[in-house]
Design brief:
By secondary structure, this protein is an alpha+beta fold. The chain is built from 18 helices and 20 strands. The longest helix has 20 residues. The radius of gyration is 30 Å and the shape is elongated. The structure holds one RNA strand of 77 nucleotides.
RNA sequence: GCCGACGUAGCUCAGUAGGUUAGAGCACCAGAUUGUGGAUCUGGGGGUCCCCCGUUCGAGCCGGGGCGUCGGUACCA
């Protein structure tokens, strides 16, 4: 194909980078609304807001040592001429550890703070997985008591309910890493005298337990033993536990009983003589007691919750939504975990050398929003503003005055600023789902009246319109006195809204 | 990362064995309607057929490589 390609200008492609997205109108306002409800709960519990820097030194983020041109997998990092290696934060917890270590002399002890904002992860994105997303965290630093853990759990329930999730629609499952460690001792993969030994195997065990809901008991058993081959033929190395060892772990996961007391009694048996394990069970009992006393949300003790992350040291918990929704193709979909957290007593140690106890929760904002949106799929598109149309360009000031009057009365309103005739203006109003359009031409002006048009009503009537005459009858439009503009528009909005 | 499927207009897709100027529906724009959105009719704009290399007189179609999307799996401080 010897087409003579004249030099076409190379234009930039208008596209969001992979893994990122743009948020429009209602997505932004819905999120802001949800966050303000959630943070109001945090605030009511005495937590202070903290807005820390989005960029941290790689060193402060921890665990990642900057290496020549291969920055850090997982984070967005770059080398600054003066500052060395910097990176965008990948969560809100590591920055908290840094802020606390840096300002601990001036901060109250314990320090309770909440934080909201975007975090960035340089990972392969997938459906529902982005490289920038919002988190909403609350943490208590400097309180070793399980009362702090119980408070966070209860508060999470309150926050979910404030966000619009009914108590029956979510479930907070609580467990304790100490109990798990006790069980590992019994299974012989944790030696209290030599905690480093078998650490890798314990990691595999933990992640295997974490996959119970997806793989089922058989899948987990395979991962505890030799390994598991998935449907695509890929093989995952297992923890190489013997049958008896695996039974101990599986028994632990299955220890959930009718009620918390029953579960704890079983755990107490399973943990046997492990001091750590018994301590963990004791803590679970205390948390259950406290939550029951405070009438907190929907919380159960469930030994199958472990959380994949390695840094947790005590209570861990996860909130999941229990309702199912249908996606756009009619398939059943379940929302997994929308929030999680736990106690991590070692995070600040890196900076100060001291052991500072901390516990907290993180809500996956985007996931929770997606769930709320999916649940209320029937809800109508958010209404646009009232549009004051422009008939005579030289009377712009008068139109602006009308819009200002409406706004002063608390009604969202704008003057049409584009070009084009009446048809174009109403098309614009229609596209924005505006409830009402205001029209004042020279004719109306002379008679001291304006036309107001109920666009939503018009749309409903249009369904039954057959002839052009019906069409032009404009039943959704009424003429009112100019002086009654605010009152009449308000009344029309009320009719449309009711 | 690994395994598999797929990649044609903004969206959903068709495209006959490799053969002129690549199509449809929806959406968008304009006109019918000189002051009225959504119905109807007519017209219009819009494509690097994912990219590169190769085979061929000729490639949306065939071959190789790459990229991307989707599904499964792994990892996720």
């Amino acid at each position: 194909m010897a087409k003579n390609k004249a030099a076409k200008p190379r234009r930039p492609r208008a596209e969001t980078p992979r893994g990122f997205r743009d948020y429009f109108g209602a997505e932004v306002t819905n999120r802001a609304e949800m966050l303000s409800r959630v943070t109001a709960v945090y605030h009511a519990h005495g937590f202070d807001p903290l807005e820390s820097s989005a960029v941290e030194t790689v060193e402060a983020l921890g665990k990642f040592l900057p290496d020549v041109d291969r920055p850090n997998e997982g984070v967005f990092a770059w080398e600054d001429d003066d500052e060395g290696w910097l990176a965008l934060r990948y969560d809100l917890t590591a920055p908290l550890a840094r802020v606390y270590a840096q300002h601990r002399r001036d901060l109250p002890n314990p320090y309770r703070r909440y934080a909201v904002g975007p975090v960035w992860r340089n990972e392969k994105p997938g459906p529902g997985r982005f490289r920038q997303f919002y988190q909403c965290d609350a943490d208590t630093v400097g309180a070793a008591s399980v009362a702090a853990d119980a408070e966070i759990c209860g508060m999470l329930g309150e926050a979910l309910e404030a966000a619009g999730i009914a108590r029956a629609d979510y479930l907070i499952r609580v467990n304790n890493r100490k109990v798990l460690n006790g069980v590992m001792e019994v299974a012989g993969v944790l030696d209290p005298a030599d905690p480093e030994r078998d650490a890798a195997r314990r990691g595999i065990v933990m992640r295997a337990i974490d996959k119970l809901d997806r793989l089922g008991l058989d899948g987990v058993r395979a991962l505890l033993g030799a390994g598991r081959k998935d449907e695509s033929g890929d093989f995952t190395e297992g923890a190489q536990l013997g049958e008896a060892q695996a039974d101990v772990i599986l028994g632990f996961m299955d220890a959930r009983a009718e009620d918390g007391a029953g579960t704890c009694a079983r755990l107490r048996e399973l943990v046997g003589g492990s001091a750590t394990g018994l301590e963990g069970v004791q803590e679970l009992e205390t948390i259950a007691e406290m939550l029951a006393a405070s009438g907190a949300g929907h919380v159960v003790i469930d030994p199958s919750v472990v959380r994949g992350l390695g840094y947790y040291t005590g209570p861990v918990f996860e909130a999941e939504l229990t309702f199912e929704i249908l996606d756009e193709k009619g398939r059943k979909r379940q929302f997994g975990s929308v929030a999680g957290g736990g106690r991590y007593d070692d995070l600040v140690t890196r900076f100060t050398g001291e052991k500072v106890p901390a516990t907290g929760v993180s809500i996956g904002v985007d996931r929770l929003l997606a769930a709320l949106a999916a649940k209320g799929r029937a809800e109508a598109a958010p209404a646009g503003p009232v549009v004051v149309t422009v008939m005579d360009r030289d009377r712009m000031a008068e139109y602006q005055a009308m819009a200002a009057e409406l706004r002063a009365a608390g009604i969202r309103a704008e003057v049409f600023l584009g070009g084009g005739n009446m048809g174009k203006q109403l098309k614009y109003a229609d596209a924005r789902a505006c409830p009402v359009a205001v029209i004042e031409g020279g004719d109306e002006k002379a008679r001291g009246v304006v036309q107001i048009k109920d666009l939503a009503l018009g749309a409903r009537l249009a369904a039954n319109i057959e002839t052009r005459e019906d069409w032009q009858a404009q039943p959704a439009q009424m003429e009112i006195a100019r002086g009654d503009l605010v009152a009449e528009v308000r009344a029309m909005l009320a009719r449309a809204g009711g």
